Description:
Elements: H1 2-18, H2 25-29, E1 37-40, E2 46-52, E3 55-60, E4 66-70, E5 76-80, E6 90-92, E7 97-101, E8 107-112, E9 118-123, E10 131-136, E11 140-145, E12 150-155, E13 162-165, E14 167-168, E15 179-184, E16 190-194, E17 199-203, E18 209-212, E19 223-229, E20 232-237, E21 242-249, E22 252-260, E23 271-273, E24 276-280, E25 294-300
Parallel strand pairs: 14-18
Antiparallel strand pairs: 1-25, 2-3, 3-4, 4-5, 6-7, 7-8, 8-9, 10-11, 11-12, 12-13, 15-16, 16-17, 17-18, 19-20, 20-21, 21-22, 23-24, 24-25
Amino acid sequence: MYRRFGVLFAAVLGVTLAAAAPATADASQQHGRFPAEFSLPDGWQPEGIAIAGTTAYFGSRADGSIYAADLRTGKGAVLAKGPGTPSLGMKVDERQRLWVAGGVGGDARVYDTRTGALLAKFQFATTDTFVNDVVLTDNSAWFTDSRKAVLYRVPLSLKPHSTLNLTGDLVVTPGATNLNGIETGLDGGLIVVQSNTGMLFRVDPRTGKTASIDLNGQTLTNGDGLLREGRQLYVVQNRLNKVARYTLGRDGATLTAERTDARFDVPTTVAAFGKRLYLPNARFSTPPTPETTYTVVAVERPRN
Length: 304
């Protein structure tokens, strides 16, 4: 698979990554002409997605390679070969650097999206670890670990990382997928979802204190990737094949809409472009092989 896409790399990469320039208003308005579904390489095993301009980036759970695809065509190429451990949640910063959570590798990696060069690696843990997702703030990248009651902070300057121990309402279950998706909050704090309990938490990034968010009778079962737009928080519920929209308030979060789609096959994370949400199908229920097919699905934002 990688030999085949390595050959395409030189020919396609220039076209693909040229799309990383900011999308024009016209491109955003005409996104309906973009494919509503496109394929990733066979055997890819995607999990995370990040979008910058009209380029989408996808990590491989199989070996950590990074794939870049043009949303205008659905075509793409391998940007960077992986280290043999997963690439999961990811975000692109203003300097066009891709920040990647390393799963069981216990690490984070930073890539140049223009060249695919590995710029930095941060080793957070070596045992009982699953670095799952990342969010960027003004000066830091914050990573969740699904096995530990911690967040990892890496300065955007690429200086050494630090570990924030979490206290308060969060209770971690050993061996389970605990903290997963992470986003910024309305008050300068952070928001995290706990997959195994379906709970949502606020996190004070200064102290590590967590406080559960009242979901007004709802539970975020299989909560995975998060995306916040103003007071609207989108939550992917992977094995439920659903993306839910919650409205955040001072006293909690209220479910305002849900979206399912016949094309969903265990979507994990979400990124936005124009009026669309893009979700990679991780297909957790399908035993992976080198020939297993994977797709990315675009849907309109859920409405009331």
